[in-house]
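Long-time lurker. I teach an intro course on protein structure, and each term I like to show students one example going from raw sequence to a predicted 3D structure in token notation. This year I'd like something fresh instead of my usual example. Would anyone be willing to generate the tokens for the chain below so I can use it in lecture? Attribution to the forum is fine with me.
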Amino acid sequence: MISRLRTVPRKNSSTLLALVAVGGAVGAGGRVYLEMAMASKGFPTATLAINLTGAFVLGVVVTMAQSSIVQNAAKFRALFGTGMCGGFTTFSTATLETFNLFHHSQFGLGIEYLILTVIGGVLAVYFGIVLSRFVSLVNRRFRDERHYSDGQRED
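-- Reply from a regular --
Happy to contribute to a lecture. Here you go:
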């Protein structure tokens, strides 16, 4: 199997690292805020909501980075994808919470949480991609219609 690694030119690595750090700080701060606001006993609702939201946003970020809207895709992905979404979401907490549910003999909740986290995350990314593609398409059509109608005006 051939593996393809993404490499970052050295001259850009410090800029990308700074963008990841800033995005990570914003994402982690947002996560802590939501964890405090949504604190619950039993089912880990806050972590599930955070991870599903982060997966959705990551789908949007990846799609936007591939579009012509974004000037510098590497910086955009570093700030919003790796940084903000990476700092916001938390796989390690989700796995610990799953372990704790099983450890406390809450097998049904553990399985439910595991399924919602994994399948829900994949679906959230998918819906983020679909929504951003739809918005991009609508925006492009609107721009084209406006451009066409601007060209047809008589002054």
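Some talking points for your students: Residues 1-5 have pLDDT under 50 and may be disordered. The radius of gyration is 20 Å.
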